[in-house]
Amino acid sequence: MSRSTFKCDSLGRADDGYELRILRAFRDNLLVKQDDGKEYYRIAPVLVNRIHTKVDRNAIYSRIWKDYLKECLLAIQNGNYRRCKEIYCRMVEDLKFRYL
Questions:
Q1: pLDDT at 9 over 70
Q2: What is the rounded distance in angstroms from the CA atom of residue 100 to the CA atom of residue 95?
Q3: C-alpha distances in angstroms, 73 versus 4, 24, 27, 40, 94?
């Protein structure tokens, strides 16, 4: 989300680093083509903007990495795209509940 994608810099990771490139490729090549995956594109910029205003935003991004994206990356590396999609969709729903 960079202000419309994951804040890797808050975790000391490069915006063009391995993790974000893999997650973006999944999102932009697979998730976007599925109806329930399109929700991510609609809501992610709003969520990131909300999170970015929080004093504890680095801790929030760290939790997002630990609770969702790290597992999603592992699923992608194992070729389990269905599992990654489930994680992404759960992440969006959980973040909507917390920050909207």
A1: no
A2: 8
A3: 18, 10, 11, 16, 18
